[in-house]
Amino acid sequence: MRSEEEGECREYVSMRLEHLRRVAYLLCQDWHAADDLVSTVLLKLFTSWRKARRADNLDAYVRGMLTNAWLDERRRPWRRERAAASVPERAVAGPEPSDRRRIGELLRALGPRQRAVVVLRFYCDMSVEQTARLLGISEGTVKSQSARGLETLRQAVSAKGEW
Amino acid sequence: MRETFEEYIGLSPQTRIDIDDVLRRSRRIRRRRRLQGVAACVTGLAVLGVVVLSVAILPRKGSQQLPPAVAASTTPQVSDADRLLAALKAAIAREAPQVSGLDGLDRYVLQCAKGNYRKVPAGPGVKAVPCPTQSGRPGILDIDRQYLWRGRLTSPTGTYIVDITISPTTYYDPSAPPVDATDAEERRIAAEQGEAAERGPNGESILATNYLLNVAKPDGTGILIKAWDADEKGAYMTRSPFTAAQLKAIGGDPALHI
Fold it and tell me: What ipTM score was computed for the predicted complex, to two decimals?
């Protein structure tokens, strides 16, 4: 990669870092894990910048890298979430207000792919077609996953009285 | 819904991501890929040359010779750990001939137990186990390539316990100017305490005392050697079978690379 390309990539990353971290947080539900995930994706982006910059929509391409990297991580046995008798202590995260905590619980209740679809569709405002292409699944699957995900969120919220 | 998510995320805490560090790592990866590509081409050409020469020159003895495929499959595969240990022993034997007991170096792997790493003797079926990031422990870079040995080495001055770690690391050129004021201040303090890293002949970052060697090579190989006396009569890590010069020479051995 030539130095001007490196500068271009660096500038893009500097501008979009905060947004990527927020998307990663919605997926990971943990700021440490989100930063790890974003670092992994940035490393891939820096090493394949020439390919990435040719994408029609660079933001969408990078979000796809982020989501797929997270889904890949989830497939590794030691990364899987396990049910535990007690909630482990968290190193840095401070207390969350109850309504924020509720949304976190709702997101965590979704399966990994459902969560990815919901985040891409409703937080990143991506279309069904874009989401399907990025995740390598059919549009029908995106529609059903997002409908189910949304329904789960709505049901859980209505059960608790507000959305 | 987007606004709801934004409210849920709230203010982001300060990030730990260092873009410059990621950029440096990506440069190393690209450089390594280029070298691997060149090496693969050279190896392919060399193999092709050997095959062509073998066919053209060597006499054919029919059934008395093994077919090439069988001969190739019987070539022993040397693992990275074995290769590094052999290089390490050779370097110590060459640079510090007064030291013995190298055959007693035992290999260990890191395994996560209750959120903390512990060293477990390596053996068949024993694998490195990383801590999940949720545990709050920082992840260890590339845990499968953390090569650790411990042994009791003897020199005319006594017997010492020696820990050796060879693993991927982040390389900083010690002769490059400080990246910021904090870096400059840390370097000033290290220099005052006589613990400033120096630049080796091949660009390595080297910090060496008689009992400690910390080397980071430009290719991303990190070498850490710690020694202390086995009978614990001296102050912790103040006695060693090596001298600083010997440790420097050992760490600078080009065969020690990941």
Answer: 0.74
